[in-house]
Sequence to fold (337 residues):
Amino acid sequence: MEYPELSIPSPGKWTEITDGLLWLRMPLPFDLDHINLYLIEDNDGWVVIDTGLASSTTKDLWTAIFSALDKPICGVIVTHLHPDHVGLAGWIAEEFKVPLYMSQLEYFTARALSEKAPGRSNWRDEEYFKRAGLATEQIDVLLSGNKGFGSVVSPLPLSYTRLKQNDVLSFKGREWRVMIGKGHSPEHVCLHCQELGVLLAGDHILPMITPNIGVYTTEPEGNTLQDYLATLVPFTELPSDTLILPAHKQPFIGVQARVDELISHHHRHLAALNEACEQPRSLVSLLPIMFKRELNGRNIMFAVAECLSHLNYLRFSNKLIRTLSDSGVYLYQSRHR
Fold:
């Protein structure tokens, strides 16, 4: 893998990747403290690729960028529904009265998560964490600290333009082909421009860190890791000199090598978990197998989801047996033992 010498853009500024393609960076209030955003030039304006969280800080930075651009915004493309990507999509689309482009599953899932449902209980969330082996006190903290999707996402438009696998978008005469990845989110949009030799990869392929591949309370029996591994493979067919523009960390060249690393990373975790389940084990007891760092706060939620995606993969591959203990905790044991 190679990392071209590109200046990291300061908040409110941009770095030109090539003519008609700009790289921006916005701050995030998390351990991963930034997100990369992009602008593609079209004939009558600029198209926004992902937007950052819905916060006053991000709005102010966008406002400075809008003022400095030589053309207005003419469209918003969101790679996937996570708040750091879709957060200000509704606001920008409304401000400029422009279309919002998303895949179908990402748009409607984001709409569903944005809707408030008075009176709905959270017993399913409680059960999810109890099945994983978390203590009642931990579960209470996790659920009480959740302010909701809508607190960091501006209202989404009531209509959108759907993006599908192999759709082609044309901006200023250049074609961008849609490539769909799954696992990190339901129907993640990546955009490849063969003319420029560039892939806008979002969170599907990241350098230095691995995307979170989790099974969450919304679909506890999901097999997201299988989805992720399967949809990584088509990206190895891109030209070897393709410049990958990720949502986090640095742009890089070497997509085949990075895909191989990501696949190997997950298979190492799968092998370690399978080996650790010689005797019945709860998910919580298996977290140190996957995560060597101390887990605290909301990182526990992401760790549980990531571990569950691997356990579900092994279970659906017929390598693990899952049973329910008398205390209501799932226990996992290798079949070959």
The mean pLDDT is 95. Residues 15-117+149-277 form a domain with the Metallo-beta-lactamase; Chain A fold (CATH 3.60.15.10).
